[in-house]
């Protein structure tokens, strides 16, 4: 994609949000240039609100969906396309997504229509966001709406939340047995409850968090050998295998992925 500014005007909230686990960005496509992005997997569940009816998503099964939707954690073989796109993207930690979108674990990296997982009122929420006078108003409205749903929803087990945030804070470099001990659970119980509530096994979730860090280090221009060492991979070959497993790309392909080119602007709080 080259310079992200050539394709997008990007809006972000003016200050830090009050809902833990939520990040937001608004995207407006410049002119009528075609956007064609291969999604690089990342450790969040994503709501995308399409205000211009221009966004098209192709998934691994060959199905094509248009309009607003929900993208499950660790998406694979998914492309976003369109022209003159106006879209609000809400990234939810799986801990938050469990309460807001339960049962989000069933998404398993897939894309579904917003109404299918949001339930009644999805169209009304989208209409209110579309009618907002500014991106800042949209951000405030989206956060308030998600906060209300989170409060009314069912939170993940505290032990599951603890293990997830430990994975994030340690950038995926954790031992699952040790995490289970810290949480006061058996490995078997943690494995089952984590998979049910987060949507991935603990091992896969830690690998995804680690890969996300590595992907952004690669996109920043760092060499694969250095990234592998810093991100906790056994060697460069290990990183290569993980890149293929998560993104279907080599580390070189990940480094050049247009999907990552906007992150320093849109997701600077990462």
Protein model, in words:
- This protein is an alpha+beta fold.
- It contains 12 helices and 10 strands.
- The strands form 2 sheets. It has a 6-stranded antiparallel beta sheet. Strands 3-8-5-6 form a 4-stranded antiparallel beta sheet, with no helix packed on it.
- Helix 1 packs across helix 4, helix 5 packs parallel to helix 8 and helix 8 runs antiparallel to helix 9.
Category by helix and strand content? alpha+beta
Listing every helix as H and every strand as E from the N terminus to the C terminus, the arrangement reads: EEEEEEEEEHEHHHHHHHHHHH
Give the fraction of residues assigned to helices: 40-55%
Strand order of the largest sheet: 1-2-9-4-7-10
Overall pLDDT level:
90
- List the total number of helices: 12
């Amino acid at each position: 994609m080259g310079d992200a500014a050539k394709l997008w005007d990007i809006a972000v909230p003016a200050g830090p949000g009050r809902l833990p686990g939520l990040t937001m960005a608004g995207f407006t496509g410049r002119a009528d240039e075609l956007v064609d992005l291969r999604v690089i997997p990342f450790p969040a569940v994503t709501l995308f609100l399409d205000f211009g009816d221009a966004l098209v998503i192709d998934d691994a099964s060959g199905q094509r969906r248009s309009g607003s939707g929900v993208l499950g954690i660790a998406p694979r073989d998914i492309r976003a396309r369109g022209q003159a796109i106006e879209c609000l993207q809400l990234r939810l930690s799986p801990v938050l997504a469990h309460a807001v979108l339960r049962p989000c674990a069933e998404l398993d990296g897939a894309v579904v229509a917003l109404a299918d997982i949001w339930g009644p009122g999805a169209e009304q929420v989208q209409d209110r966001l579309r009618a907002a006078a500014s991106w800042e108003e949209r951000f405030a409205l989206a956060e308030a709406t998600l906060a209300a749903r989170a409060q009314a929803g069912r939170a993940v087990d505290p032990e599951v939340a603890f293990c997830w945030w430990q994975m994030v804070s340690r950038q995926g470099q954790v031992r699952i047995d040790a995490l289970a001990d810290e949480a006061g659970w058996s490995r078997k119980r943690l494995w089952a409850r984590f998979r049910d509530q987060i949507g991935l096994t603990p091992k896969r979730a830690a690998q995804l968090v680690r890969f996300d860090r590595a992907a952004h280090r690669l996109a920043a221009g760092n060499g694969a050998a250095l990234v592998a060492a810093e991100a906790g991979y056994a060697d460069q070959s290990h990183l290569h295998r993980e890149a293929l497993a998560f993104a279907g790309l080599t580390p070189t392909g990940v480094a050049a992925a247009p999907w990552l080119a906007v992150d320093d602007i849109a997701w600077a709080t990462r």
